């Protein structure tokens, strides 16, 4: 015969079920929640600037919060546009040079690989004329399949572009309203916490806030130092695109692995296009290899330290997990979100080790 539940136990079961259903709904709506999550993280980072600007006195009155929010959001969007203007000249300069180098590269590949392939009995055209003829034959024999594939890709690509455009346009709007009502939103979230847990919850929130603030400050310093290092090093090595590639590499460090890889690819392309010998590639290898050593052994331990406490395997798992749940925005937010989860896990582990279930 089952034991009857008290009123308090019934309420606990009910609200646990409600919150469980709520979190399952959030997981199911992960792709839709991406702009809201991105706007919330950005608002968290920008809110101290809004609060500080709001405290500025203009005569006898302070700056209205709405005006402070507008100023901070405009400065943030201007910074993003400035980064785009940094990348655009690099692409505008390197893509035409890459197109001009393709015939010479094909000729060199034909002279190098053609004889060896023929010695191995492989008759594959490696010159530009032969590859062009081979592609023409393939297009003629499989034109219908290629056309259907292009149509399918176009529909999927168009949907993806519309989705990204929607996110890009929606995030600034969400960011404005979140910053405008930030303290009200935080107060409402705090009001939803059961009163018996409010003390622990506030303590955990303050710990997370301190951890993320230290992490963000340290990460910004790492990005600034690396942007200066890569720009100056590439400039000394004689790269024409040293400044934009160096700045871009330094600023993309906040995306683990991906940011460094993109900067390295841009530098390698610049080396291949600008230098006729191996000196450019050797310079890139030395500069970027030294940059990784400086970042991994000096900058990150000293400026960011062990504040997050994630080892490389946990970092890779966090990137894959948040990327699967929230797409590319999840990759950007993986480490800060992991820091929050680490604090929650630490408190949960402490509670578990002190429980009668563990010590019995």
UniProtKB/TrEMBL annotation:
Q: Which Pfam families does the annotation name?
A: AI-2E_transport
Q: How does it sit in the membrane?
A: Multi-pass membrane protein
GO biological process annotations for this chain's record? Answer: transmembrane transport
Kindly list the residue ranges recorded as spanning the membrane: 20-46, 66-88, 161-180, 220-239, 245-273, 280-300, 312-345
GO CC, sorted alphabetically, is: membrane
Principal subcellular localisation of the protein: membrane
Cellular compartments annotated: Membrane
Presence of keyword Membrane = yes
Instruction: Determine the domain of life of the protein's source.
Output: Bacteria
Instruction: Please give the family membership noted in the entry.
Output: Belongs to the autoinducer-2 exporter (AI-2E) (TC 2.A.86) family.
Q: What is this protein called?
A: AI-2E family transporter
């Amino acid at each position: 015969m089952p034991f009857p539940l008290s009123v308090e136990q019934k309420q606990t079961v009910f609200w646990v079920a409600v919150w469980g259903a709520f979190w399952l709904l959030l997981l199911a709506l992960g792709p839709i929640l991406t702009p809201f999550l991105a706007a919330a993280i950005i608002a968290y980072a920008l809110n101290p600037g809004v609060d500080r600007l709001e405290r500025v006195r203009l005569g006898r009155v302070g700056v209205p919060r709405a005006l402070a929010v507008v100023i901070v959001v405009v400065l943030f969007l201007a910074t993003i546009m400035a980064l785009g203007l940094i990348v655009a000249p690099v692409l505008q300069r390197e893509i035409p040079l890459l197109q001009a180098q393709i015939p010479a590269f094909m000729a060199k590949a034909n002279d190098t690989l053609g004889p060896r392939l023929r010695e191995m009995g492989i008759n594959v055209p490696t010159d530009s004329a032969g590859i062009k003829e081979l592609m023409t034959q393939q297009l003629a024999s499989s034109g219908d399949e290629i056309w259907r594939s292009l149509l399918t890709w176009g529909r999927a690509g168009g949907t993806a572009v519309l989705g990204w455009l929607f996110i890009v346009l929606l995030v600034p709007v969400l960011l404005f309203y979140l910053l405008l009502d930030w303290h009200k939103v935080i107060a409402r979230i705090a009001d939803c916490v059961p009163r018996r847990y409010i003390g622990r919850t506030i303590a955990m929130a303050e710990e997370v806030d301190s951890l993320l603030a230290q992490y963000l400050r340290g990460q910004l310093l790492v990005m600034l130092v690396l942007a200066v290092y890569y720009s100056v090093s590439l400039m000394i090595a004689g790269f024409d695109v040293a400044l934009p590639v160096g700045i871009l590499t330094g600023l993309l460090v906040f995306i683990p692995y991906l940011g460094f890889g993109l900067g390295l690819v841009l530098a390698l392309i610049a080396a291949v296009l600008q230098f006729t010998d191996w000196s450019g590639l050797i310079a890139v290898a030395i500069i970027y290899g030294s940059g990784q050593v400086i970042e991994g052994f000096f900058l990150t331990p000293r400026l960011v330290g062990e504040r997050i406490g994630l080892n490389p395997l946990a970092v890779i798992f966090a990137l894959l997990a948040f990327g699967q749940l929230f797409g590319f925005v999840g990759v950007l937010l993986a480490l800060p979100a992991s820091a929050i989860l680490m604090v929650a896990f630490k408190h949960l582990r402490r509670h578990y080790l002190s429980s009668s279930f563990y010590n019995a």
